[in-house]
Write a structure and sequence with these properties.
single chain
Length: 67
């Protein structure tokens, strides 16, 4: 698999050795059951899949309430 580096990486953790290296970053986060910053920017520091699920659940419940 070929994976080019990204010129405009949205991750604020610029000291990370995987910064701008998406393939390595995604592999690392998959192994630690967490989400990369670029996929879940509004995380209040919690990148766990559980937090992401709760965030989405709350968001979709609000959408349903507005219908």
């Amino acid at each position: 698999m070929s994976c080019n580096n990204v010129n405009n990486c949205p991750c604020s953790k610029t000291t990370c050795p995987n910064h701008s290296q998406c393939c390595k970053c995604v592999a690392k986060h998959k192994a630690t059951d967490s989400l990369p910053y670029c996929l879940f920017c509004d995380n209040n520091g919690d990148k766990s899949n559980r937090n992401y699920y709760n965030y989405l659940k709350k968001r979709f419940e609000q959408d349903t309430d507005n219908e």
